[in-house]
Structures are given as structure tokens and as C-alpha cells.
Amino acid sequence: MMQSTIGKSVELVGIGLHRGSPVKLRLEPLGVNSGIVFYRSDAGVSIPLIPANVVDTKMATVIGREGVTISTIEHMLSAIYAYGIDNLRVIVDADEVPVMDGSSMSFCMLLEEAGIVSQDTPKKIMRIKKEVTVQEGDKYVKLIPSNDMNYDFTIKFSHPVIDKQSYVLAFTKENYKKEIARARTFGFVHEVQYLRSKGLALGGSLENAVVLDDKKVLNPEGLRFGDEFVRHKILDAIGDMSLIGMNFIGNYEAYAGSHDLNHKLTLELLKDPANYEIVELATAESKELAKAYA
Length: 294
Fold this sequence. Notes:
By secondary structure, the protein is an alpha+beta fold. It is built from 7 helices and 20 strands.
């Protein structure tokens, strides 16, 4: 398994969730060992995708540098990570990534349009060596050493449609596309009203989110999966964990996890080099580990 980038530049235009304005997104190939680098074309600032550049995790994962920020990056990053892309330049002309339909499927389609190409340097992945946990009250997120890759997520909401949901994704690119990529972000009417009073969620609609009142789903088409809510939480977690800077081998587990807890988990993991090892996918053993990204 070698490092990979995209075969050609591709772009799309979509609405930003919070500002409600059109955003142009462009993806460009990058050379080996470049990582994922964001660029605000309207401000002329590059923001490498590293945990140190995370500046906010309340409503979404937000990165920033030199006073310039880019919000709602996790859905697109989730697709980039699932496709095993190592090197990529992400250009936007505003302070957020377009929300599209609230899932990551549009980004999967964009990556497939671009094509994935191998580069001439072995891919590096992170193998989790020690269990790492971040807990706040009864909420927790953790990474567990394993030669498998599972995302095991449980949520609990006092809402009749959601209640308690659990899902385990056996991670491969194909499983991601089939089971996770179409799951949309969700929110409650009272939250949307509050956010709009603060000048946020101006682009939110039934076209790009599952919206619930006190009793039911308001979207006329209903849900894409009976447990779409927990599946979207896994989609978010995959995007958030990509801030590690490379794909990893190990199991992720969460109860009521969030963008904030995921960010704290990446920091806790990277704080102690004994928690992990970096493996080049060049040996017979590492080729076995690479199957998830084939």
C-alpha cells in the first residue's frame, strides 16, 4: 500500500450550513508526505490538518490559523479518511465547507470523480498500542488496540424516535459507503430556532439535515436508516479522528461521544508516544492491516 492522492482537481458549490451562503469547494492533488492541507482562497491562508489547529468543537469541528477559520470539516474529512487519501489540498472561498445533503455521500462521489492514484512512497498508518480513554460524566470515547478496525457507538436521547441506538461498523471503504456515508446530520427544531437567533444554522433546512420536533421527524421523506442518528455519529467520529494525521488501526468506542470528546481523544493519544506506533505498509503483516483501505 502506497500513499495516495486524487487523480485530478475537482470542485463543487454548495450552501454553508451556518452562513447560508454558497461556498466553492475545490480538491487538488498534493505530493507525498504533504498530508491534508486546507486553504482559504478568500483570505490567502493555509491551515494544515493537525490537532493543534482545532479552534472550536461546540457545533462542529473548526480549524483555524492566523485568525482565519474553516468550520464543519468533519463530513468531508470522513469521506477522505474512508477512501484512504493521504495527501490532498482542500480549497474553500469561505469560512465553512458546504454541507451538501448533511451526509458525506456528495464528497464520496466527488472523490470518485477525481479518481484515487497511488504515489511512490509507502503509506504510513498509526497502530494503537495502549487503550486511551477520555471520559466526562457518563460520556466517553476510547481507542483500543486491535488488528481489526471497528467503530462502536451508542447514543441515548430522551426522544421517542431516537431513544437508545447502538451501531458497530466493521471498517472498510465499501462498508463505509454502504452503511455510513448516506447518514445525515440531525437536529431539533428548538435548537435550530436558538441557533438562528445567534446568526447560525442559516443554511440549515430539511434538504440537508434530519429535523425533529418533540415527537417526530419533520422530513417528508423520513429516515434513510431506522438508526440513521447513530450512523451519522460514526460518520462524524471518523472525520474527527482523521485529525490524527493518518489512518489508524485499532477500535474506536463511544457512548454519547461528541466533536469535543473526539478532539480531546486525539490530543490524549498523541500526548504519549507509548500509546501508538507508526507503521509503514511495506511488510507482509502491514499489508494485512492495509486491507481496510483497499
